[in-house]
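sorry for the late reply, my laptop died twice this morning and i had to redo everyting from scratch. anyway the thing you sent over, i finally got around to it. pasting the sequence first so we're on the same page, its 77 residues, then the predicted structure underneath. double check i copied it right bc i was rushing
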Amino acid sequence: MTLPDRLSNDPRSPFYNEELLLNGIGIRFNGKQRTDVSEYCVSEGWIRAQAGNSKDRFGQPMTIKLKGTVEPFLEQE
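ok and here's the structure:
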């Protein structure tokens, strides 16, 4: 199975794919595994990660955009 270039865990996003997310996707960012990634793009080289426990005015978690090397992989059980 090939992983998409861009994926989001927000159902409102056009890059959301529930089937892939249920299978379990891991992200290696700059060589380290990250568990707080809410969206990634391999070709542009960025991830969106939660910024602590902060919420925006709509109650959604605040995110920050980090640039670097993004490597998605399927998590094995």
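The chain has a mean pLDDT of 92.
thats about all i looked at so far, will dig more tmrw
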